[in-house]
Design brief:
Largest sheet: 3 strands, antiparallel
Radius of gyration: 27 Å
Number of strands: 13
Oligomer: single chain
Structural class: mainly alpha
Number of helices: 19
Length: 644
């Protein structure tokens, strides 16, 4: 009887979602005939809606919070989440709940039920890690008085873990399949149940690790269950969980293409404010360790727009006495320029005096000078093109999660943390088709297991991208977490969540360029938000549920905050580790500009410059050609010396 009621509600209340997008549904249907509800008719549309709304969240919040990219707006608590929150519930959550009511535990649709449970767990895991507790038990409730209660953060995670435990165990490799699977397809386009199960079990481990700060015993219980099926994890590029848009501009083009890329490329709107550019902090980890993935993540500057490093100190052979060397101040062009965040000198700060200036009274000079709007390191087009793919969980994630477990709970897993860590790097390189470069990268200090790496410094001296991997468990975890962060590039939700639960990156605050209306803010800057705000509509339409959720969140948060009546950016969720920094320590100080993040781009000597610059400019074979193609010029000779 329950299933019949669900079917009637589904057909009459919401209709059949007949997805007409590329690669989601190719079934021709007679509009004059009522068909039996099947997951094939509805589930692809749910996944497509998930793709669009998670992309919008990634563009506006997640990838920015993770410091993967820069956009110009500052976070404000005047931002109303009502529209996207409502759409997620109406177009994704409620449809999933109704699908689950029909197909979960249906013996004729056992695998379809497992797919629905897996996707339901994923969507709720995204919502709870973004907002805190949200409606789950009463998500599909239809009441005239509009009262529906929020589940607590803890209760949601218990339900999510139980969903995934059941889905993983219930998948039947010989059971039912969707004829045209929206996510994992076999050769005949039907569902690949092996890959669906790998997705469910990898997500299961991910969520179990996420709740460690909230309840370590709960985490260990489910980590152990997930790892009891060690071969049921993402284990190849083909297993990577990604949703993909199509090529029909009117039907299934990517959110990013429709939002800004199309107008940018056709010239109708060349405003780059919405075009993600590589963030200064993320860039430090790429350049510090000469990461070969740099070209996969960001665009090179055109020859006309290459950025000029005005001052750098390298050495060369003295042209008149080959036994001597010169220390020289040089300038040259570089192919990448990361975007700095909005405020260069924070309010309350001052620029320091350079004691080496000619008169000893000049301020340090900002290395970012005369940068045109097109001269940034923009995100690679593959991430935002018309038929881009959005990754949920990768092969590298699975490897790094196992490495984390091997460090923390070695009794729960076979294999060494080092092996899983190195597998994770190789998996990430394989994803970008540069597998042959992984082994050399892993020889670098800081990347090589159990070694320390000295990173480059941010242009104001606020942050250095060191990797302290040598020593015990905490150091090994730092290496694992930072490599997972890099591998998850542009999956902003993953990067943001990883940082909140580990604090391994420990970035400086985001400094405001204007008066910010965030209640509880210092007005100078704030650390990146700990959560998104509940939609304002809830205050009017569901005040009982809304205020009860805030009260519960404030009562259980590891660091509650009363600002904005408790619904604010600064209240930590229970999955979060406390921030080791104090925002008040950033209220004032002295900025000492430096260009270290770009200097020594091609090496420390003129000989190295010729060799390394030739990788960017194959025509470079000598110092004169270095000058011709890379804008190389000697500003002055600092000193001449006899090398040791």
């Amino acid at each position: 009887m329950k299933k019949i009621v669900y079917i009637i509600l589904f057909i009459c209340g919401f209709g059949i979602v007949n997805s007409c997008v590329d690669d989601f549904d190719e079934i021709n249907m007679n509009p004059n005939k009522i068909y039996q509800v099947s997951p094939q008719h509805v589930f692809p549309g749910v996944i497509h809606n998930t793709l669009n709304y998670t992309a919008e969240l990634n563009h506006k919040f997640y990838s920015w919070h993770a410091r993967y990219v820069c956009l110009w707006p500052s976070p404000k608590d005047t931002e109303d989440m009502s529209g996207i929150y409502r759409d997620i519930y109406m177009r994704i959550v409620k449809e999933l709940e109704k699908l689950a009511g029909i197909f979960v535990d249906d013996p004729d649709n056992k695998n379809a039920g497992c797919m629905i449970m897996t996707w339901k767990a994923y969507v709720y895991s995204l919502l709870v890690a973004s907002f805190g507790g949200v409606p789950m038990s009463e998500a599909a409730t239809e009441q005239l008085d509009n009262v529906y209660m929020y589940d607590s953060e803890y209760d949601m995670y218990v339900q999510i873990l139980n969903l995934l435990e059941k889905a993983v165990s219930d998948f039947d490799l010989n059971g039912d399949k969707l004829e045209f699977d929206p996510l994992f397809r076999s050769a005949d386009n039907s569902s690949d149940i092996v890959r669906w199960r790998k997705f469910a079990n990898t997500l299961y481990l991910d969520i179990a690790l996420r709740v460690q700060n909230m309840d370590e015993n709960l985490a260990k219980e489910h980590i152990k269950k997930s790892l009891s099926h060690n071969d049921w994890f993402i284990s190849s590029v083909n297993d990577i969980v990604k949703m993909k848009w199509g090529t029909d501009l009117n039907q299934d083009a990517s959110y990013y293409y429709r939002s800004f890329l199309r107008r940018y490329e056709d010239g109708s709107d060349r405003n780059t404010s919405a075009y993600p550019r590589i963030n200064q902090y993320f860039f430090l980890y790429l350049k510090s360790y000469e990461d070969p993935r740099m070209d996969a993540f960001g665009t090179r500057l055109s020859s006309a727009n290459r950025f000029q490093v005005l001052n750098d100190t390298i050495t060369r052979i003295n042209p008149y006495d080959k036994s001597m060397r010169d220390s020289i101040d040089v300038r040259y062009l570089v192919p990448f320029l990361p975007a700095r965040e909005v405020r260069t000198v924070p309010k309350g700060w001052m620029v320091g005096i350079d004691p080496n200036s000619p008169d000893g009274n000049q301020q340090y000079k900002d290395p970012y000078t005369s940068v045109s709007e097109d001269a940034w390191m923009f995100i690679q087009r593959d991430f935002i093109k018309i038929d881009a793919a959005s990754v949920i969980l990768g092969w590298a994630d699975a490897c790094f999660m196992k490495a984390e477990v091997a460090v923390k709970y070695p009794d729960l897993i076979t294999g060494s943390a080092q092996q899983y860590y190195e597998d994770g790097i190789r998996a990430s390189f394989a994803e970008y088709n540069i597998s042959g470069l992984a082994d050399n990268y892993m020889k670098t200090a800081g990347i090589k297991w159990n070694t320390n790496g000295k990173g480059r410094m941010e242009y104001r001296g606020f942050y250095t991208a060191n990797i302290n991997g040598e020593g015990g468990a905490e150091n090994h975890l730092e290496q694992i977490y930072k490599q997972r962060y890099i591998a998850d590039f542009f999956n902003g939700f993953a990067g943001w969540t990883l940082e909140r639960r580990t604090r391994v990156l420990n970035f400086p605050p985001f400094f405001y360029n204007e008066d910010v209306l965030n209640l509880g803010s210092t007005g100078i800057g704030d650390f990146i938000p700990e959560r998104l705000l509940y939609p304002r509509d809830e205050i009017t339409y569901n005040p009982v549920g809304y205020y009860a959720a805030i009260e519960e969140m404030q009562a259980t948060s590891p660091s509650p905050n009363p600002a904005r009546w408790g619904d604010n950016f600064f209240t930590l969720l229970r999955i979060a580790k406390p921030n080791p920094q104090n925002i008040n320590d950033w209220n004032s100080g002295v900025v000492v500009f430096n260009a270290q993040f770009l200097q020594k781009w091609y090496g420390k000597t003129e000989e190295e410059f010729v060799i390394n610059a030739s990788k960017d400019y194959p025509t470079i074979v000598s110092v004169p050609s270095l000058a011709r193609y890379a804008g190389y010029r000697v500003n002055t000779i600092i000193s001449t010396y006899t090398p040791n």
